[in-house]
Specification:
The complex is a heterodimer. By secondary structure, chain A is an alpha/beta fold. Chain A has six helices and seven strands, in the order βαβαβαβαβαββα. Chain A is 25% helix and 26% strand. Chain A has a five-stranded mixed β-barrel. In chain A, helix 3 links the parallel strand 3 and strand 4. In chain A, 48% of the residues are buried. In chain B, strands 4-2-5-10 form a four-stranded mixed beta sheet. The longest helix of chain B has 20 residues. Chain B has eight helices and ten strands. In chain B, helix 1 packs across helix 4. Classes of the chains: A alpha/beta, B alpha/beta.
Chain lengths: 186, 281
């Protein structure tokens, strides 16, 4: 583990959130909840219908992942991030319910970036296409809702030192913009 | 006429699906290593190291390289002297997909209906099969598990002949910049030029699946590939979009004759996990 990496725990506290800036490498330990397209649709439908959610979002991090099925003897299969922008439309509803972090890959909409500042929440990137490696940091996986969605079901993951990087912080920082400006040669 | 049995095709396709999902082709590993040497950004270099480590871990732990084990794309070349016995080619391929995705614990990512039901078919079928009849008595099958993230970063434009080479250059660079970190860079940019609307999209797919390092045999297109590769790598997007000098591992162009009114251009992006496997029976 790199010494410049910051170790953080879930659920996230306001101090931890405000202490992180775009570009900071982190190692996350605790619980992550998985959700992607279809699960988000159901969560938001439940919120709109005034129904209770399958888990309390306050302080939590959602990981945008649809893992491969676990081979015998392993807690999970390959488990890297999916592209995040597809979930952009659902984000405001979840932030309202207290969600404090998302892990995925790829750029977010301007609206999401502004909402992260407003609700004091973070967007993290994990390395896409490194699903076999990332599975090593996931010690258990339990389906807690929407089992019929198969790979898109909501899972509760126990992670230890899961590697990620802050893409969008609570100050308007954006690693993708900063990185591109630094190395652009046109 | 040569006979090839359904059993032989089935086993070969199951083998292709396994190989493609667990072992990254040598040319891709080589390109990632070379990119690691060249990359100017320390974060970019570290990201490339992670991708190379993932290749080792996938093999050691028998986990798929990526959790998105894709839509099954098959490019089939069927010699017209071949007679397939014991089954219909497409059924054999779909049956092999069903078997391989189950037995190798691959993710099932296909929904039955794009708009109304969106219910997971549970076995990753149907795969998308493109079959061409070619001379001879061989059957060549290429399989690629195409991930959704990079496939979504695709487009097709009916440019005007007046837009020409400049229009192509501009559109490719604009598009790769727009896609940014989404398709898991470093990418392979697959470009189709010419043909008709439908053929152009298929050309882009074939270009995306051409092995890295192989240039178009036409020197003008080969030069354009190199020029676009250099230009894409000056955009600054870098590995996973964290900034850097490696945005693409390669740019491939396939072209066809076209209509006097047209200049079709299609782009299909392939992520760094450029998985494919091929067999000739």
């Amino acid at each position: 583990m790199n010494s410049r990496e910051k170790k953080i725990q879930t659920p996230l506290t306001e101090d931890v959130i405000q202490g992180l800036k775009a570009g900071d490498a982190v190692r996350i330990t605790g619980i992550l909840f998985t959700a992607r397209d279809a699960a988000h649709q159901r969560l938001v439908s439940a919120i709109q219908a005034g129904q209770s959610l399958p888990f309390d979002l306050r302080g939590q991090i959602i990981y945008y992942v649809g893992p491969t099925p676990p081979p015998p003897g392993k807690p999970i299969g390959s488990a890297g991030p999916t592209t995040s922008y597809r979930m952009d439309v659902y984000v405001p509803y979840l932030l309202e319910k207290g969600l404090k972090g998302m892990i995925g890959k790829g750029a977010r909409s301007q609206k999401v970036k502004e909402d992260l500042q407003k609700h004091k929440a973070l967007y993290f990137g994990a390395v896409g296409g490194a699903g076999a490696l990332l599975a090593r940091y996931i010690h258990s996986a339990t389906v807690i809702a929407y089992e019929d969605l198969g790979p898109e079901a909501i899972r509760k993951l126990q992670v230890v030192n899961f590697p990620a990087v802050v893409i969008n912080d609570t100050y308007g920082g954006d690693l993708y913009e900063q990185g591109k400006q630094k190395y652009r040669q046109t | 006429m040569r006979e090839i049995s359904a059993t032989e095709i089935f086993s070969a396709v199951v083998g292709l699906i396994q190989r493609a999902n667990f072992i990254l082709p040598d040319a891709v590993v080589k390109a990632l290593k070379e990119a690691h040497e060249r990359e100017a950004s320390p974060t970019g270099q570290q990201t490339l190291s992670i991708l190379l480590e993932n290749v080792t871990v996938a093999a050691q732990e028998q986990l798929p390289l990526c959790q998105d084990t894709g839509t099954g794309i098959f490019l089939v070349e069927l010699g017209q002297e071949v007679h397939i016995t014991g089954g219909f080619l497409n059924d054999i391929i779909q049956e092999a997909v069903r078997e391989a995705y189950r037995s190798f614990h691959l993710r099932k990512s296909i929904v039955n209906d794009p708009v109304f039901d969106r219910k997971n078919t549970g076995d990753n079928t149907p795969a998308m099969i493109h079959t061409e009849i070619v001379p001879g008595e061989r059957l060549k099958i290429l399989f690629a598990p195409k991930g959704g993230g990079c496939e979504n970063m695709s487009g097709l434009w009916m440019l005007t002949p007046a837009e020409g080479l400049e229009g192509i250059r501009r559109k490719v660079l604009e598009f790769v910049e727009w896609a940014g970190p989404n398709p898991c860079p470093p990418i392979v940019v697959g470009i189709g030029i010419g043909g008709s609307f439908d053929q152009c999209a298929l050309l882009a797919k074939k270009a995306a699946l051409r092995p890295i390092g192989i240039r178009n045999p036409d020197p003008r297109y080969a030069q354009l590939e190199q020029e676009l590769l250099d230009a894409v790598n000056r955009l600054g997007i870098g590995p996973m979009g964290y900034g850097g000098t490696t945005t693409a591992l390669d740019v491939h162009i396939e072209f066809l004759p076209t209509h006097i009114t047209q200049l079709p251009l299609a782009i299909n992006i392939q992520c760094h996990s450029a998985r494919y496997a091929e067999v000739v029976l």
